[in-house]
Design brief:
Order of helices and strands: HEEEEEEHEEEH
Structural class: mainly beta
Radius of gyration: 20 Å
Number of strands: 9
Number of helices: 3
Strand order of the largest sheet: 3-4-2-1-7-8-9-6-5
Number of domains: 1
Length: 158
């Protein structure tokens, strides 16, 4: 995905009064209405949805060999509405996070987008934190049935 011309021009300026914003959408089979947040001080209308202004931080994955990349997310626990939704979920509920980058003057144009499963959510009085990444997918076996002495004894003569 390439950036729009106004976004490229904004990145090349030494100062930009408008700036870029992160949009976070949390969905899941057990969440009725998706949780939509914007990392800003005021609510935002984008793509036909209202995003609630709530500070959050996205920490990119470390570049480590032999390790599944994990993006960390930390959301301020202001108002406690998100915690109420998360506590109402059944154990093992699968959540998906979609992070979008937009340029403030054109909030309906997505400059970049990343979607991945969410897991390991923890909440305290101040923050909600968790991981975003394909670690559940990457930890699954590559095939449904393996050929070993138990599943295919004819291939392994004794």
């Amino acid at each position: 995905m390439s950036l729009t011309t106004p976004a490229v021009e904004a990145l090349q300026r030494t100062s930009d009064a408008q700036g870029f914003l992160y949009l976070l959408t949390i969905t899941g089979t057990d969440i009725g209405t998706p949780i939509r947040l914007v990392n800003d001080t005021r609510n935002l209308e984008s793509q036909g949805f209202t995003f609630l202004a709530l500070p959050f931080e996205i920490i990119p994955p470390k570049q480590a060999a032999q390790e599944i990349p994990r993006t960390q997310i930390r959301i301020d626990n202001i108002g406690r509405e998100i915690v109420q939704v998360l506590e109402s979920l059944p154990p093992g509920a699968e959540l998906t996070a979609k992070v979008q980058v937009i340029y403030r003057p054109s909030p309906d144009v997505v400059q970049a987008e990343f979607t991945a499963p969410m897991s390991g959510l923890k909440a305290n009085v101040f923050t909600i934190s968790g991981s975003i990444g394909p670690f559940t997918l990457m930890s699954r076996p590559a095939v449904a049935i393996r050929f070993d002495p138990n599943s295919a004894p004819g291939l392994f003569p004794t």
